[in-house]
Amino acid sequence: MNRVVITGLGCVTPIGSSVSSFREALFSGTTGIAPIRDVPDAPNGDPGVRYTQAAQIFDFDPAQHLDSGVIAATNRNTHFAIVAARQAAQQAELLNHHNPGDIAIIMGCACGGRSSEESEVKNLYTRNARAHPLTIVRTMSSAGASNISIDLKITGPTLDISTACASATHAIGLAFHMVRSGMATAALTGGHEAPLSWGFYRAWDSMRVVSPTRCRPFAADRDGMSLGEGAAILVLETLESAQARNATIFGEIVGFGMSADANHITQPQAEGAALAMKKALADANASPDEVGYINAHGTGTQANDATEASAVRQVFGERAARIPISATKALHGHSIGASGALEALATTIALQEGRLPQTANVSNPDPSLGVDVIIKEPRPTGPTLALSNSLAFGGLNAVIALRTWEG
Length: 407
What we know:
Layout lengths: L3 E9 L6 H10 L5 E2 L17 E2 L13 H6 L2 H17 L1 H4 L5 E6 L5 H14 L7 H5 L3 H10 L5 E4 L5 H15 L4 E8 L4 H10 L22 E9 H6 L6 E10 L9 H14 L7 E5 L6 H15 L7 E3 L2 H4 L6 H15 L1 E2 L15 E2 L5 E2 L4 E8 L3 E8 L4
Parallel strand pairs: 4-5, 4-6, 9-10, 9-14, 10-12
Antiparallel strand pairs: 1-7, 1-8, 2-3, 6-7, 8-15, 11-13, 14-15
């Protein structure tokens, strides 16, 4: 089997619309969670919810990147996908070294073009208006993957995975296995999402899991998640091809594990998350003793953080209290289907830099959780094995294992 390395990175996020700006915010602890504004269709722009903040992207203008025809035919989430894919492909010089028919595009997107759909449904129900003829192509979840293919002229296997908050991690895991097996010589993979519409805000408000202030994962006073948007995309290819052309290697993906809780649609089970972590380690042919960092799903809700901490203790036993953990949703928010991609990007950068990001907004970690939460400042690390966890509604769990590239 092929070894699989990361040779390109791209992103559009609430903490930076380039990898360099994302990296800077990641280690400075500069959060993108801020007061909600500019909510389409909401009266006076106010969504009328109990919480006040979200992780929105304010510095992105699609007209600076895309032509008017593409903008008109696509939703904001697809705009993010195309731009992030361009960044990653350009950095890796992907199309200079791989046949377009041998490159896979595997994306994670759970919500599709939510804002486009809401706008058309509102007009239908209030005025019996005719739907815009581009409504379907704007709203389908696979639009991002398709438009990346069209934009970059890549003709290999192209698809979208929709598994709620684990979508992007499932996508990265599938792409990793495709490249490792030789089904594709390279892949563009990650996730994208732009779900922050009026209806989306109101639906989450009804679930009572959004923080009234800011997401504080694993904190003693944690009180919920913060919604977000964005995209992050990685280029994967074989180690052999990367070395043959002297490509920059940011890290190596070595394992992927997934599981289902088979229990409840919204109540997570530690056993399911633990099984996914164990499977990722087994796929990597690695021991739990090798793990030196966990990028947690870490939503900041009482139930999720307690469940994830319990899963970590099940997998690592007494070592759980000594494995550094951080949750970057405190910076970029919870972007649903894209969140695993933003966290994979953060984990890749952390391993490359030899610095583990702190969990922002947290001053007092919950001692009852029994895990080592990184707070206040980044923590230095040597070469190590890391896990990046995604634990989705529906009990769908996905974990990727990454190693520091030592060259």
